[in-house]
TrEMBL record, chain A:
<dbReference type="GO" id="GO:0006081">
    <property type="term" value="P:aldehyde metabolic process"/>
</dbReference>
<dbReference type="GO" id="GO:0004029">
    <property type="term" value="F:aldehyde dehydrogenase (NAD+) activity"/>
</dbReference>
<dbReference type="InterPro" id="IPR016162">
    <property type="entry name" value="Ald_DH_N"/>
</dbReference>
<feature type="domain" description="Aldehyde dehydrogenase">
    <location>
        <begin position="391"/>
        <end position="475"/>
    </location>
</feature>
<feature type="domain" description="Aldehyde dehydrogenase">
    <location>
        <begin position="18"/>
        <end position="366"/>
    </location>
</feature>
<dbReference type="Pfam" id="PF00171">
    <property type="entry name" value="Aldedh"/>
</dbReference>
<dbReference type="InterPro" id="IPR016163">
    <property type="entry name" value="Ald_DH_C"/>
</dbReference>
<feature type="active site">
    <location>
        <position position="225"/>
    </location>
</feature>
<dbReference type="InterPro" id="IPR015590">
    <property type="entry name" value="Aldehyde_DH_dom"/>
</dbReference>
From TrEMBL, chain B:
<keyword id="KW-0560">Oxidoreductase</keyword>
<keyword id="KW-0472">Membrane</keyword>
<dbReference type="InterPro" id="IPR016161">
    <property type="entry name" value="Ald_DH/histidinol_DH"/>
</dbReference>
<dbReference type="Pfam" id="PF00171">
    <property type="entry name" value="Aldedh"/>
</dbReference>
<comment type="similarity">
    <text>Belongs to the aldehyde dehydrogenase family.</text>
</comment>
<feature type="active site">
    <location>
        <position position="251"/>
    </location>
</feature>
<feature type="domain" description="Aldehyde dehydrogenase">
    <location>
        <begin position="6"/>
        <end position="439"/>
    </location>
</feature>
<protein>
    <recommendedName>
        <fullName>Aldehyde dehydrogenase</fullName>
    </recommendedName>
</protein>
<dbReference type="GO" id="GO:0009737">
    <property type="term" value="P:response to abscisic acid"/>
</dbReference>
């Protein structure tokens, strides 16, 4: 445990000047080489593990204050995930830090080539409010593992967790290299004006654009973990009971729908919809009881801003007639019951924005809703006859069209036993990540990169991808003074050109001649 | 194209390409391979035209055009064709106990419709090489070649449609208005090669659409020269890296040398001898040297030379011919730290030599400047080599040679900090134009009821035991101990 004894966090009045000072300080520390060694990095990671173990009660309490997050969720989704990320990094770090030898090409014979990871320098992590512990510490783990100095700006919308970081982190990690800055828009703006070597932002697309534009001024690379409307495509060929449980726990068991990879909307066929709705209702009753507003297993809505936002989606006259389950609201306690809506209009607000709450719309499609344009495009590009097209047509595939028409989401889900449908889904739907026959879980696999594409984000992390995202992969070619190929040097005679041409076309004779010093000048 | 290419036309073009992409045209291996084969054929069949255009734009010698542009493009095509099937295959990865049973893989999806903005100094290579990557990854592409190399730009507009599928690959010629119109559109990726000032403009435009970018920029590439070297070989490799690469107008050309005061005279002498051997007594007439690309850059470079702070430091060269846009290979010794030439990227045939008392000061000088695209070291001392690799931050490095790190397709080529972000070449090109999509797949078995609400204490204890691998805890929880 190293503690240089400096102030834990910058207190009020954190303006541009203080931000500049902070970065300069960290740059000096970084330049001193303090963060480079394996020992330092491992010590920080071990300290974070210890912090999680020793302060689990405080962390869980802060999460409960900020979100009324159930203890089980705090443990499962935040505490244990953060700890797993640390222990995985500790286990693998030496290997990740090693340069990777790569083949040399004949054009540089003899030579050795390798790719060496090096830290970027001083990086900024801006976290989110919905998983305020995990989404702060997980990127920080990656930044430290890669040997950087870090500034963490936790979300002010989760103030207890933010204050907890400011209080706890300095007790465990090297405060000369890792700092916490609390604050809101002014403080974040002050931070964004500085020159960082990387910025890692988790949040929404609007602020993501602001972060990237600020980064552009300094040519700072960014990773943006954003959101989107995560679709769940449900086929009729499923184990409905299991599918239903997995959808419900993925939606409401994750911060009551306030999660970037929570199911946002369901797509299924008209013929299957009623069965699905019934099953979801049954599962919801089982999980949260007849009075879900009293269930301790559901997070509340984080604050009144978001409560109003969600209430507005729900009270939109376009959707009011479509509620088939739930819909209760309690503004004082910031609670909204798990709510199912059936066939909300495509042009309702709910179908345009990311919901990020406990409302789950179910959209249905039928054979009659084929878009002529899609049909024509399909025919033109596949030269197939109309009869063939209809015979091969799978109703559920119309849902694909709907998904293609929206921005690329952070996650897309499909429930089916049909292998061909699964293949088509995986092949043609673009999303940050995908899960077949479950929800959420891909987040927990450290071998899978976690990140978005298009509107859902840039870059990825988790496991080695965290290490990579905070590293620069430096190419190194190493030669000795032997292996001179005279043909390489001016004046460029026709003979030299011939030999070099031959060499490049892979001719070993040409290589030999070149190495033997042909042609003689 | 170029007349009246405004934002409306740009939007139309992007929409067209998006439709082609959504129709799935670019997805198959066959389509991608056909395009790449088309490009390889184009290099073979149009070599004379390409070489002529490069000579028009830069007075680039035939040897250089072949070595540094044509053959590099062809090798890139062939390497990609050889490896593409393998790259396209999903990569299976281990699964974690938390999702047992399951299978996990990472798929490479094309991003969609991408924009490649090229540079003027290697106008053929720096246009086609990124396009190769974009096509290999299954994207539709728009190429905007540099207007500062107009012969090559119009060559692309003319010949690319003969070899590539124009419903998915387009060329847009033009200068600032056309580039601005393109940058206003929503792309799925932009790869820009050029300078940092425009790099910022590109990234700012991209930020409006959350478009990821690769920026291949520049910087002052240092060459640290130890006294413990084979001087003759080092000298040749430095000279060919500097002036044999488009007469110093290359992003990875040596910009300045750092050596000890005691070694400098030997180094300078050796460089001068090598220069004369390569380019003769009258280098302004040598056909093996590119000219300066245009009068803008010629003025920029002569301004650097004519700066009164540096005029007394020329130890070799300095001759120029404005009409033929030629400046002779020039070496300057110990220019003042605050001269313009020590601050900006030179990008021309002027080579600085900075002398220090000890090489350590050289390290300090390099690390005091922004991170360059390439850094070079000449030494036989393994410890010095090790220290250099560890302490100098740069896009890439070569030890005891210059430039060549660029030619190895297994090495990523890109900058860091002011010299850029992202990388390409070889598989890195494929990766940079792909989205790596995680796919986790389960069946309906393997249900873990502890996962579901209501969250009883018993469930929590079991899950905790499972996650921490504490079997005893799991067993105790299962049999209901301790009783609460």
């Amino acid at each position: 445990m190293e503690n240089s004894g400096e102030e834990p966090a910058v207190e009020g009045g954190f303006d541009g000047a203080k931000a500049t000072e902070l970065v300069a300080e960290l740059r000096r520390t970084f330049a001193s080489g303090r963060t480079r060694g394996f020992e330092w990095r491992a010590a920080q990671l071990k300290a974070i593990v210890r912090m999680i173990e020793e302060k689990e009660t405080e962390i869980t309490a802060a999460l409960y204050e900020d979100l009324s997050k159930p203890g089980m969720e705090s443990y499962l989704h935040e505490v244990s995930m953060a700890k797993a990320a640390c222990t995985f990094a500790l286990k693998e770090l030496k290997r990740w830090m090693k340069p990777e030898k790569v083949p040399s090409s004949i054009t540089t014979f003899p030579s050795t080539a390798e790719i060496a990871p090096e830290p970027l320098g001083v990086v900024l992590v801006i976290s989110a409010w919905n998983y305020p512990f995990l989404l702060s510490i997980d990127p920080v783990i990656g930044a430290i593992a890669a040997g950087n100095a870090v500034v963490l700006k936790p979300s002010e919308i989760a103030p207890s967790t933010s204050a907890l970081f400011a209080k706890l982190l300095p007790d465990y990690i090297d405060n000369s290299c890792i700092k916490v800055v609390e604050g809101e828009v002014p403080e974040t703006t002050a931070l964004l004006e500085q020159k960082w070597d990387k910025i890692f932002y988790t949040g929404n697309g609007k602020v993501g654009r602001i972060v990237m534009a600020a980064a552009a001024k300094h040519l700072t690379p960014v990773a943006l973990e954003l959101g989107g409307k995560c679709p769940v495509l449900v086929d009729s060929n499923v184990d409905l009971k299991v599918a239903s449980k997995r959808i419900v726990v993925g939606k409401w068991g994750c911060n009551n729908g306030q999660a970037c990879i929570a199911p946002d909307y369901i797509l299924t066929t008209k013929s299957f919809a009623s069965k699905l709705v019934d099953s979801l209702k049954e599962t919801l009753d089982k999980f949260y009881g007849k009075d879900p507003m009293e269930s301790a297993d559901l997070s509340r809505i984080v604050n009144s801003n978001h409560f109003n936002r969600l209430a507005k989606l729900l009270n939109d006259e376009k959707v009011s007639g479509t509620v088939v389950y739930g819909g209760q609201q309690d503004e004082k306690r910031l609670k909204i019951a798990p709510t199912l809506l059936l066939d909300v209009p495509h042009d309702s607000l709910m179908m345009k924005e990311e919901i990020f709450g406990p409302l789950l719309p179910i959209l249905t499609v039928s054979l009659l809703e084929i878009r002529m344009h899609h049909l024509l495009t399909f025919l033109v590009s596949n030269k197939s006859s109309i009869t063939c097209f209809f015979l091969q047509f799978d109703k559920v595939e119309e849902c694909f069209d709907f998904i293609y028409s929206k921005d690329k989401p952070l996650a897309a889900y499909l429930f089916t036993k049909d292998k061909k449908l699964k293949e088509k889904f995986v092949r043609t739907v673009s999303a940050g990540g995908m899960l077949i026959n479950d929800t959420i879980l891909h987040l927990a696999n450290p071998h899978l990169p976690f990140g978005g594409v298009g509107e859902s984000g840039i870059g990825a992390y988790h496991g080695k991808f965290s290490f990579d995202t905070f590293s620069h992969k430096k190419a190194i070619l190493s030669r000795s003074f032997g292996g001179e190929a005279r043909a390489r040097y001016p004046p460029y005679t026709p003979q030299k050109q011939k030999i070099l041409r031959g060499l490049i076309n892979g001719s070993f004779i040409a290589l030999l001649l070149a190495l033997l010093g042909w042609p003689r000048d | 194209m170029g007349e009246g290419f405004d934002a409306a036309r740009a939007a139309e073009m992007v929409a067209e390409l998006r439709e082609s992409f959504m129709a799935g045209k670019t997805r198959s291996f066959e389509w991608r391979a056909a395009q790449l084969k088309g490009l390889a054929r184009m290099v073979d069949e149009k070599e004379a035209d390409i070489t002529a255009a490069l000579h028009d734009d830069l007075a680039k010698s035939q040897m250089e055009s072949f070595l540094s542009e044509l053959s590099m493009v062809k090798m890139s095509c062939l390497f990609t064709l050889k490896e593409l099937k393998r790259w396209m295959k999903p990569e299976k990865v281990p699964t974690s106990a938390t999702s047992f049973p399951s299978s996990a893989k990472i798929m490479s999806d094309p991003l969609g419709v991408v924009l490649v903005i090229s540079a003027w100094n290697y106008p053929f290579l720096l246009s086609i090489d990124p396009v190769i990557g974009a096509i290999a990854a299954g994207n539709a592409v728009v190429l905007k070649p540099s207007e500062v190399a107009p012969a090559t730009s119009s060559l692309f507009a003319r010949i690319l449609p003969e070899y590539l599928d124009t419903s998915c690959v387009r060329v847009v010629e033009g200068s600032i208005p056309e580039t601005t119109a393109l940058l206003e559109q929503k792309w799925d990726k932009i790869l820009y090669t050029g300078n940092a000032r425009v790099g910022r403009i590109v990234m700012t435009a991209a930020a409006k659409h959350l478009t990821p970018v690769v920026l291949e920029l520049g910087g002052k590439c240092p060459v640290l020269v130890d006294s413990n070297v084979d001087l003759k070989v080092a000298s040749k490799r430095i000279v060919v890296g500097k002036w044999g690469g488009n007469n110093g107008q290359a992003c990875i050309a040596p910009d300045y040398i750092i050596t000890t005061k005691s070694f400098a005279p030997q180094l300078v002498d050796s460089l001068i001898i090598t220069l004369e051997k390569f380019y003769g007594k009258n280098p302004l007439e040598s056909a093996d040297l590119s000219r300066i690309v245009n009068s803008n850059h010629f003025s920029r470079l002569t301004k650097l030379l004519d700066d009164e702070k540096v005029s007394g430091t020329i130890v070799c060269g300095g001759q120029r011919n404005e009409k033929s846009l030629r400046i002779a290979p020039t070496i300057l010794l110990d220019v003042p730290d605050d001269s313009l030439i020590m601050k900006e990227e030179i990008f021309g045939p002027l080579l600085l030599i900075v002398t220090v008392n000890e090489l350590q000061e050289g390290f300090d000088l390099i690390t005091s400047k922004s991170k360059p695209l390439a850094a070079y070291l000449f030494t036989k001392d393994k410890k010095l080599e090790h220290k250099f690799v560890k302490t100098v931050f740069a896009g890439g490095m070569a030890i005891n040679d210059t430039i060549l790190q660029f030619t190895n397709p297994h090495l990523p080529f890109g900058g860091v900090g002011e010299s850029g972000m992202g990388a390409y070449h070889g598989k890195f090109s494929f990766d940079t134009f792909s989205h790596k999509k995680s796919v986790l797949s389960r069946g309906f078995g393997g249900e873990v009821s502890m996962r579901y609400p209501p969250y009883t204490t018993k469930k929590q204890r079991i899950l905790r035991g499972l996650i921490t691998g504490n079997i005893i805890a799991v067993i105790l929880a299962l049999i209901g101990w301790p009783r609460n």
